[in-house]
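Notes from hallway chat w/ T.B., transcribed later so I don't forget. T.B. wanted the structure written out for a chain they're using in a teaching module, and asked if we could keep both sequence and C-alpha coordinates in one place. Agreed to drop them here.
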Amino acid sequence: MLHTAFALCLILITVSSNLAIAIKKEKRPPQTLSRGWGDDITWAQTYEEGLFHAQQSNKPLMVIHHLENCQYCQALKEVFAQNEEIQEMAQNNFIMLNVMHETTDKNLSPDGQYVPRIMFVDPSLTVRADIIGRYSNRLYTYEPQDLPVLIENMKKALRLIQSE
Protein backbone atom coordinates (compact mmCIF):
# COMPACT_ATOMS: atom_id res chain seq x y z
CA MET A 1 0.00 0.00 0.00
CA LEU A 2 2.74 2.46 0.94
CA HIS A 3 4.68 1.41 -2.14
CA THR A 4 1.65 2.11 -4.37
CA ALA A 5 1.02 5.51 -2.77
CA PHE A 6 4.66 6.46 -3.29
CA ALA A 7 4.54 5.39 -6.95
CA LEU A 8 1.31 7.35 -7.45
CA CYS A 9 2.93 10.48 -5.93
CA LEU A 10 5.91 10.13 -8.28
CA ILE A 11 3.59 9.84 -11.28
CA LEU A 12 1.62 12.92 -10.18
CA ILE A 13 4.81 14.95 -9.70
CA THR A 14 6.11 13.92 -13.12
CA VAL A 15 2.84 14.73 -14.87
CA SER A 16 2.45 18.09 -13.13
CA SER A 17 6.03 19.17 -13.89
CA ASN A 18 5.62 18.18 -17.55
CA LEU A 19 2.36 20.10 -17.67
CA ALA A 20 4.05 23.15 -16.14
CA ILE A 21 6.80 22.97 -18.77
CA ALA A 22 4.22 22.69 -21.56
CA ILE A 23 2.30 25.69 -20.22
CA LYS A 24 5.51 27.75 -20.01
CA LYS A 25 6.36 26.96 -23.64
CA GLU A 26 2.99 28.22 -24.85
CA LYS A 27 3.16 31.54 -26.58
CA ARG A 28 1.83 34.21 -24.29
CA PRO A 29 -1.22 36.10 -25.53
CA PRO A 30 -0.47 39.42 -27.19
CA GLN A 31 -0.47 42.50 -25.02
CA THR A 32 -3.56 44.51 -25.90
CA LEU A 33 -1.66 47.73 -26.60
CA SER A 34 0.94 46.00 -28.80
CA ARG A 35 -1.62 45.08 -31.45
CA GLY A 36 0.99 42.67 -32.79
CA TRP A 37 3.88 45.15 -33.12
CA GLY A 38 5.87 43.59 -30.27
CA ASP A 39 4.46 41.92 -27.19
CA ASP A 40 7.60 42.46 -25.11
CA ILE A 41 7.56 46.22 -25.67
CA THR A 42 5.94 48.52 -23.14
CA TRP A 43 3.43 50.59 -25.11
CA ALA A 44 2.02 53.97 -24.18
CA GLN A 45 -1.75 54.08 -24.23
CA THR A 46 -2.19 57.61 -25.57
CA TYR A 47 -0.15 60.24 -27.36
CA GLU A 48 -0.23 62.45 -24.28
CA GLU A 49 1.06 59.60 -22.10
CA GLY A 50 3.81 58.91 -24.63
CA LEU A 51 4.88 62.57 -24.58
CA PHE A 52 4.93 62.58 -20.79
CA HIS A 53 7.11 59.44 -20.61
CA ALA A 54 9.42 60.70 -23.36
CA GLN A 55 10.04 63.90 -21.45
CA GLN A 56 10.44 62.15 -18.09
CA SER A 57 12.76 59.40 -19.35
CA ASN A 58 14.70 61.50 -21.88
CA LYS A 59 13.90 58.93 -24.57
CA PRO A 60 12.40 59.61 -27.99
CA LEU A 61 8.79 58.70 -28.66
CA MET A 62 8.19 56.55 -31.73
CA VAL A 63 4.63 56.88 -33.05
CA ILE A 64 3.37 54.22 -35.45
CA HIS A 65 0.17 55.16 -37.29
CA HIS A 66 -1.59 52.12 -38.76
CA LEU A 67 -4.93 50.46 -39.47
CA GLU A 68 -5.90 46.85 -38.82
CA ASN A 69 -7.40 46.32 -42.27
CA CYS A 70 -4.47 47.84 -44.20
CA GLN A 71 -2.42 45.23 -46.03
CA TYR A 72 0.67 47.48 -46.04
CA CYS A 73 0.39 48.02 -42.29
CA GLN A 74 0.01 44.28 -41.71
CA ALA A 75 3.09 43.50 -43.82
CA LEU A 76 5.18 46.11 -41.97
CA LYS A 77 3.89 44.96 -38.59
CA GLU A 78 4.92 41.37 -39.30
CA VAL A 79 8.55 42.18 -40.14
CA PHE A 80 8.74 44.85 -37.40
CA ALA A 81 7.66 42.32 -34.76
CA GLN A 82 10.12 39.70 -36.03
CA ASN A 83 13.18 41.95 -36.27
CA GLU A 84 15.31 41.45 -33.16
CA GLU A 85 17.29 44.68 -33.53
CA ILE A 86 14.16 46.81 -33.84
CA GLN A 87 12.47 45.01 -30.96
CA GLU A 88 15.53 45.45 -28.72
CA MET A 89 15.86 49.17 -29.50
CA ALA A 90 12.12 49.70 -29.06
CA GLN A 91 12.14 47.93 -25.68
CA ASN A 92 15.18 49.69 -24.27
CA ASN A 93 15.62 53.06 -25.96
CA PHE A 94 12.21 54.37 -27.00
CA ILE A 95 8.82 55.23 -25.65
CA MET A 96 6.52 53.38 -28.04
CA LEU A 97 3.01 54.21 -29.22
CA ASN A 98 0.97 52.67 -32.00
CA VAL A 99 -2.26 54.38 -32.93
CA MET A 100 -5.10 53.55 -35.26
CA HIS A 101 -6.51 57.09 -35.22
CA GLU A 102 -5.06 60.51 -35.81
CA THR A 103 -3.77 62.51 -32.88
CA THR A 104 -4.63 66.14 -32.23
CA ASP A 105 -1.00 67.11 -33.01
CA LYS A 106 -1.03 68.18 -36.66
CA ASN A 107 2.79 68.06 -36.61
CA LEU A 108 2.45 64.26 -36.78
CA SER A 109 0.98 64.48 -40.27
CA PRO A 110 3.13 67.07 -42.07
CA ASP A 111 2.59 65.47 -45.49
CA GLY A 112 -0.81 63.87 -45.00
CA GLN A 113 -2.71 61.31 -42.95
CA TYR A 114 -1.70 58.02 -44.55
CA VAL A 115 -0.74 54.66 -43.10
CA PRO A 116 1.59 53.13 -42.25
CA ARG A 117 3.41 56.20 -40.99
CA ILE A 118 6.18 56.32 -38.38
CA MET A 119 7.18 59.56 -36.72
CA PHE A 120 9.65 60.39 -33.97
CA VAL A 121 9.23 62.96 -31.18
CA ASP A 122 12.27 63.92 -29.13
CA PRO A 123 12.18 64.41 -25.33
CA SER A 124 11.87 68.18 -25.78
CA LEU A 125 8.51 67.30 -27.42
CA THR A 126 9.67 68.35 -30.89
CA VAL A 127 8.28 66.25 -33.73
CA ARG A 128 11.32 65.25 -35.77
CA ALA A 129 9.99 65.92 -39.27
CA ASP A 130 13.59 65.63 -40.50
CA ILE A 131 13.70 61.85 -39.85
CA ILE A 132 12.18 60.51 -43.04
CA GLY A 133 11.89 57.27 -44.96
CA ARG A 134 12.87 56.73 -48.57
CA TYR A 135 9.74 57.81 -50.45
CA SER A 136 9.31 61.39 -51.67
CA ASN A 137 5.52 61.16 -51.93
CA ARG A 138 5.05 59.68 -48.42
CA LEU A 139 8.00 60.83 -46.35
CA TYR A 140 7.25 58.82 -43.19
CA THR A 141 6.08 55.50 -44.59
CA TYR A 142 8.07 52.30 -44.51
CA GLU A 143 7.57 49.04 -46.36
CA PRO A 144 8.86 45.63 -45.19
CA GLN A 145 12.00 45.95 -47.32
CA ASP A 146 12.73 49.34 -45.70
CA LEU A 147 13.69 47.94 -42.28
CA PRO A 148 17.36 48.95 -42.70
CA VAL A 149 16.18 52.54 -43.28
CA LEU A 150 13.91 52.37 -40.22
CA ILE A 151 16.73 50.95 -38.08
CA GLU A 152 19.03 53.76 -39.23
CA ASN A 153 16.33 56.33 -38.46
CA MET A 154 15.85 54.88 -34.98
CA LYS A 155 19.60 55.22 -34.41
CA LYS A 156 19.47 58.77 -35.78
CA ALA A 157 16.71 59.66 -33.30
CA LEU A 158 18.90 58.33 -30.50
CA ARG A 159 21.99 60.21 -31.74
CA LEU A 160 20.04 63.48 -31.87
CA ILE A 161 19.20 63.14 -28.19
CA GLN A 162 22.77 62.33 -27.22
CA SER A 163 24.09 65.38 -29.09
CA GLU A 164 21.73 67.77 -27.28
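Follow-up for T.B.: The mean pLDDT is 87. Might be a good example for the class.
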